[in-house]
Write a structure and sequence with these properties.
The complex is a heterodimer of chains A (207) and B (427).
Chain A lengths: L1 H10 L4 H8 L14 H5 L10 H9 L3 H5 L12 H5 L6 H14 L8 H16 L4 H9 L4 H10 L1 H9 L7 H4 L6 H19 L4
Helix pairs in contact in A: 8-9
Chain B lengths: L10 E4 L3 H12 L4 E4 L22 H13 L4 E4 L2 E9 L2 E8 L13 H5 L3 E3 L8 E3 L1 E2 L11 E2 L7 H9 L12 E7 L1 E4 L3 E3 L16 E3 H8 L20 E8 L14 H16 L4 E6 L9 H8 L4 E5 L4 E4 L6 E6 L6 E6 L1 E6 L1 E3 L26 E3 L9 H25 L2
Parallel strand pairs in B: 1-2, 1-11, 2-3, 11-22, 13-20, 14-15, 14-20, 15-16
Antiparallel strand pairs in B: 4-5, 5-10, 6-7, 8-9, 12-21, 17-18, 18-19
Helix pairs in contact in B: 1-2, 1-8, 5-6
Classes of the chains: A mainly alpha (207), B alpha/beta (427).
Chain lengths: 207, 427
């Protein structure tokens, strides 16, 4: 991954905006931002962001590559779409945030311990394995990702919700054993591999 | 109204605001016969509803007075009020306009003595004050109204109030049997000067214009500041009548926004800068104005005015488009939330009153009436060279008074050329 990062940094030297436009989903919109600030003000998680979206766009244009890609900020997006709805220039801000997070992850620059990133990885691996999410495996995996003790504490804190879900038959406690996944798992794996190849080719990831 | 004479050498001006009045007067002064049509019961339009003009801060009554004088005395101008154009057909040099004349229920005998207004008890919202005040259902549209004649609101027809008004009139001026009338006018050329209307602020959902009493529009603020307005010139909050000494102005409320109006309405920055001077005038050193803006567009010579306002310590500029407004229910204060662009500081600012500098949109969808070309915002563009319908003032673009008048003069010149061509062709 470090190699891709070096290659990209070399290719787009001093022009991070171009790099974003070429490699980040909806990145071509970044230049359209007129810095009114309505997105930052509208974000329900706004106070938790180190750099609100409007500032991220300005940082991209100012070429502050490392600061942007290593930032935790875009990982805070919960896809509420408030910013997209209010943006006077109709920038797809939510998608750009996810695009940036994804790009930073591909380059290996995303913060390793960011909880959103870790959840996303777990979710993806879980899903890609059988083509269908194994809910009990995913939630137990999440609780225990920081060790046994914290896992017990987390599970205990969520027990009422868990019991409620069991009663409502929204959670299968035997999922570890009975989870079946999709019929043609091999086909799904092949499809995902092909999609990844196409995307890598399109975006110029060589490694 | 059957005495209206119109030929293919007549210029019909649609709209009796500052642009239309200018167009009518100038066309008549070049020797053309003009018919001036106005939808409202009196001339003057939006300009007559302003407290002051920028940048000189003089009163619109003065400019209106001059224009009315020129217009009243001119034998070539025929003014029809409460006249609405529904269709224009034909081509340059030969247009036919279908015009509906709505009844005023008051004839030429009226002396504006006001007896009918006193006799009537029903009240209706006063459109001259954008509904901030109520008035009797027999009314004079404004102090400067031309023609100086009362109007009976159709809502009281058939009630005892209408009969009371009729009985109170000493001059036999009230005729409750008037009916709407449709006439057809000929014209060689048409100047379309139907002006603008403020963008519906309730559509800007996060600003809560429809939910919070103390969020008002810039045009309403003009009326609050006017000594002849609903509060006799006291800048007070609609919710509790408290003096509004700490006022927020939000720019681009509806303008430059792909969710609302895509164009820049051009006047709003200057209007808010001007309104901060009203605050000074009313409250002296206690006045606190805050302007929330994306960027201030004080075009060409207005830069001086902007710099003067910037030098005022009672005016704060905050570079940010406000994200949303909430209301403190206990006090009625409005709280503006957002992030500024100079430092990315999050703010939750409390103000007595919030004024939305709303954008301009064309007041009439002209495409349903005439075959003209309009831009993406509905403003009239110059048509093909053989066209004889010309947009003037805010029907043609978002313009201030000065530029509207220039635009009206330009359109009259085009209209005169069309009419001259027709006259020449017929020898």
């Amino acid at each position: 991954m470090g190699d891709i990062n070096r290659a990209m940094a070399e290719q787009y030297r001093n022009d991070f905006l171009k790099e974003v436009e070429a490699n980040v989903e909806e990145g071509q919109w970044v230049k359209m931002c007129m810095q009114c600030g309505v997105c930052s003000g509208s974000c329900p998680l706004g106070p938790a962001w180190e750099h609100p979206p409007q500032e991220i766009f300005m940082m991209i244009r100012a070429g502050r590559r490392d600061e942007v890609l290593k930032s935790e900020s875009m990982w805070m997006c919960t896809s509420c779409y408030n910013c997209i709805v209010r943006c006077p220039r109709e920038l797809p801000i939510t998608h750009i945030m996810h695009g940036l997070a994804n790009y930073a992850h591909r380059l290996g620059l995303a913060p390793k311990m960011n909880p959103t990133r870790r959840f996303a990885k777990k979710f993806w691996n879980n899903l890609a394995k059988s083509g269908r999410v194994n809910e009990i495996e995913l939630s137990v995996g999440l609780y225990f990702m920081d060790g046994f003790k914290t896992g017990i504490a987390r599970a205990w804190a969520m027990k009422d919700i868990g019991i409620g879900m069991l009663k409502a038959k929204r959670l299968n406690p035997f999922g570890f054993l009975t989870h079946k996944g999709c019929k043609d798992k091999k086909g799904i794996h092949k499809m995902l591999k092909k999609a990844r190849e196409i995307e890598d080719r399109r975006k110029g990831f060589t490694a | 109204m059957a005495d209206v004479v119109a030929t293919h050498e007549t210029i019909v001006v649609v709209g009796g605001g500052i642009s239309g009045m200018t167009a009518a007067v100038e066309a008549a002064e070049t020797g053309k016969n003009v018919i001036l049509l106005e939808r409202a019961p009196s001339l003057g339009g939006r300009v007559s509803q302003l407290y002051k003009y920028f940048p000189k801060l003089c009163h619109p009554t003065c400019g209106m007075e001059i224009n009315l004088r020129r217009l009243r005395g001119h034998k070539r101008i025929k003014v029809l009020t409460q006249a609405e154009v529904s269709k224009i057909e034909g081509h340059a040099g030969d247009y036919k306009l279908s015009v509906t004349l709505h009844p005023r229920y008051v004839n030429d005998n009226c002396t504006a003595c006001g007896e009918c207004g006193q006799a009537v008890s029903a009240e209706i919202p006063n459109p001259f004050d954008y509904g901030l005040s109520r008035m009797k259902a027999a009314y004079l549209p404004s102090l400067m109204a031309y023609p100086q004649r009362y109007v009976i609101d159709p809502s009281i027809l058939g009630t005892a109030d209408a009969e009371k008004a009729k009985a109170a009139c000493k001059y036999g001026a009230i005729d409750l049997d008037m009916k709407p009338e449709t006439i057809t006018l000929s014209a060689g050329a048409v100047v379309w000067a139907t002006g603008w209307r403020p963008y519906d602020a309730a559509k800007i959902q996060p600003y809560g214009y429809d939910r919070f009493a103390n969020v008002i529009t810039s045009v309403e603020f003009e009326r609050l500041s006017d000594p002849r307005g609903p509060t006799a010139g006291r800048v007070v909050r609609p919710s509790d009548g408290k003096e509004a000494k700490n006022v927020a102005f939000i720019q681009c409320a509806g303008s430059r926004d792909r969710n609302h109006l895509t164009h820049c309405s051009r006047i709003c920055c200057m209007a808010s800068l001007k309104q901060t001077t009203y605050m000074r005038e009313h409250f002296g050193d206690e006045a606190q104005s805050t302007i929330y803006y994306i960027d201030i567009r004080a075009i060409d010579r207005f830069e001086d005015f902007y710099q003067k306002v910037q030098a005022d310590p009672g005016v704060r500029f905050l570079k940010s488009k406000v994200a949303n407004i909430t209301e403190d229910e206990a006090t009625g204060d409005v709280i503006l939330h957002g992030v500024d662009t100079e430092g990315y500081h999050r703010y939750d600012n409390r103000h007595d009153l919030c004024v939305l500098a709303v954008g301009m949109e064309p007041s009439v969808d002209v495409r349903s009436i005439a075959d003209v070309r309009v831009d993406a915002s509905g403003f009239i563009e110059l048509g093909p060279t053989d066209g004889g319908i010309f947009g003037a003032g805010c029907a043609a673009n978002a313009l201030d008074v000065n530029r509207s008048v220039q635009s009206a003069t330009a359109s009259v010149l085009r209209a005169v050329q069309v009419v001259n061509r027709v006259a020449k062709a017929e020898g």
